[in-house]
Amino acid sequence: MSKEFDPGIIKKLDEVVVNRIAAGEIIQRPANALKELLENSLDAKSSQIQVQVKAGGLKLLQIQDNGTGIRKDDLGIVCERFTTSKLCKFEDLTQIATFGFRGEALASISHVAHMQIQTKTKQEPCGYKASYADGKLQGAPKPCAGNQGTIITIEDLFYSMPQRRQALKSPAEEFQKLSDVVSKYAVHNPHVGFTLKKQGEAQPALKTPVNSSRKENIRIIYGSAISKELLELTYKDDTFKFQMDALLTQVNYSAKKGVMLLFINQRLVESPALKSSLDGIYSTYLPRGQHPFIYMSLQLPPQNLDVNVHPTKHEVHFLYQDEIIERIKEQVEAQLLGSNATRTFYKQLKLPGASDVLDETQASDKTRLYPKDFIRTDSQEQKLDKFLAPLKQSDSGLSSASANSTSSGSEVNASQDESFRAVAARKSKEVRLSSVLDMQQKVERSCNVRLRSILKQLVYVGCVDESRALFQHETQLYMCNTRLFSEELFYQRLVYEFQNCPEICLQPALPLQDLLVIAMDSEAAGWTPEDGDKLELASSAAAILEQKAPIMREYFSLRISQNDNGSVVLESLPALLAKHMPSITQLPLYLLRLATEVEWEQEAQCFESFCRETARYYSQLDWQDEDNGLQQKWYMEHVLFPAFKKYLLPPARLKKQIFELTNLSSLYKVFERC
């Protein structure tokens, strides 16, 4: 039988081979070694760190700090694997708050380079110098003069791994990577002074002062063009227990190559998911192929962070990653929403005699638009039927409904265009209540920029049913939940029209007690005989609304008062959109919910719950018969959707209520197959 299929003999590798393999995983290039040494210097509480380089770090890489230094007694094992002052047991990893913690950096470097350490602590009378090879101390440490701190000198990096050395970039490119590492740590640690210098050159390539600021260090390293466009963003989330500090450029700045500095629990790391999300936000504002500058520092509970998932520690995993990224995205979107103040545009002036029409030979294929990319609609166009509203029976189907819904046969006057304007012109009050201002700011912070852009440029297509409609944006066809979108719209209208709402006057006024009795009879009220007598419950609800009438009248233009006969009547409702009339059939239940669901005792909760209940009521449309259906379709196209375009600041949660059905590119592919 052939020996070709005999199993190989498994042998234990020599310890030197094992250590060199491990070193190759951790120290992949000079920049990895520098990152490890910088983190050790920061752990040692240094305020000055100087780096000297020769041939991109391959011939010489020296780092000097003024930190706490290394004790003489520890010099014997400092370069052995898994020797550290940071851990005692594996469980300590869940609370680690320092950089170098596994005891592999110095050991790995000593296996692939010639290394020397010179150090002095505050307690010892002199310094000591020691040389290392393959993780072992070469001879006894020798006394020497020196200042407090540590100098680590690495020479002939990868001398024992010629393949790795040959695969590296040129010395100039390796130096650029070293400079990139120092730059990022200098921005994140402005209290520390950093210096990077090529050996033999008089001037340093990079230098930052001690006790500077992040913004100032960004100016020194990356230039004033970036620093003057920076926005500061600080956010603390109590739900997922994280804090964010960020400096990001406004939409007036962009570059072909974006820069993102991400630190999580003080560690320089990468997060492709977070970077992709932030690039998606900026793509709404920046030209194609242009990117922002972003510095971001996240602080998470140590127990939620796994720092031991990558040999070079450039990647970490943490709990609730998707949710935290979504919260960060919302904050950045809200910050950029109003950051157009400094935006500038440039135009090319024509030389005298230049032709107005470009020569066809100068046209680039990249600017050519194919049929599948044509946008065949205009979001600014109008239709004639906008000005031809459907005729309403008895002047208004809503008025008829009101006559059938109330025992007194009262009617609602639906021709309110003139009264809207007249009442609105009389009112103009400045809102000063902090609770209302907080509600307005919350609406603005939660606005999804991408969804707002879609709504602003939508073209209405048609109504599907009572709660769904189709619209087009550029080459995409969408379907949205109009009920939930309109509910959010009316909520925001109440928040921004606080104290200044026009009125819908009810002529004649409607008896409040009768309306509440009608509400008690509806299935939605959920009344059972065990709840008590209907008339008593209706009377109790009427008393609550009468007591809170001054609040509703002052802030929301909902007037409840006593008429000449002593009866409590409803005289007006707030007018939130011109040509919009809320459903008269849902009015009794709305009043009942105001009495039972609004939190009247706390100011902020009162305004919030009142606005939500009112928005829920105003978003309900009457589709009982064919005539009402035609009126509501006209209203949806010419009142509701134009209001979405003009007013609505959609929160991120509404993204789940909009669906892309198809797009022109996909349809062309189908046609091509046919």
From TrEMBL:
Show the GO cellular component annotation of the record.
MutLalpha complex
List, for all copies, the residue spans of the domain called DNA mismatch repair protein S5.
Answer: 218-337
Provide the alphabetized UniProt keywords: DNA damage, DNA repair, Nucleus
Could you tell me where this protein is found in the cell? Nucleus
Its Gene Ontology biological processes?
Answer: mismatch repair
Return the PANTHER family for the record. DNA MISMATCH REPAIR PROTEIN MLH, PMS, MUTL, DNA MISMATCH REPAIR PROTEIN MLH1
Q: Which family does it belong to?
A: Belongs to the DNA mismatch repair MutL/HexB family.
Its recorded name reads DNA mismatch repair protein S5 domain-containing protein
Q: Which organism is it from?
A: Drosophila willistoni
